[in-house]
Amino acid sequence: MTPQRRVILDLLREKRWHPTAVELFRAVRRRLPRVSLGTVYRNLDLLSQAGKIGRVDPPEGPRRFDGFMERHTHARCVSCGNVEDLEYSGPGWTEVLRVVTGGSETTESGFRLTGHRIEFEGTCARCSLEERAGAG
Length: 136
Ligand SMILES: [Zn+2]
Ligand SMILES: [Zn+2]
Fold this sequence. Notes:
By secondary structure, this protein is α+β, with helices and mostly antiparallel strands. Helices cover 41% and strands 14% of the residues. The protein has 5 helices and 5 strands.
């Protein structure tokens, strides 16, 4: 593994955050001042193709990256795009199938369901504060 790739992976795993490539680039540059944004993009692609990091693709705005690979749930801020991890203990897979198809893995149209993903959206703490300040 190249030193650049090592630093990128370490930074992503250091804390629970979901930086964009540019945010990560700023953090990498503090450790490797000569790194380029292109190198960061290329390594993020390679790491996600290798399944070592996760990706968050919001409906709009830049892609974000995730070093925490255990199954977990995201809450996305619709205002700034910030993504946080959520402790979620809602319905499991069996429960979802029971609600959606009555327990079968195949829907009426013949679509075979193999998994589900839940993403929450809302307003992060910082944006909520700004909203309140703006309203007052
Ligand atoms: Zn926000
Ligand atoms: Zn996450």
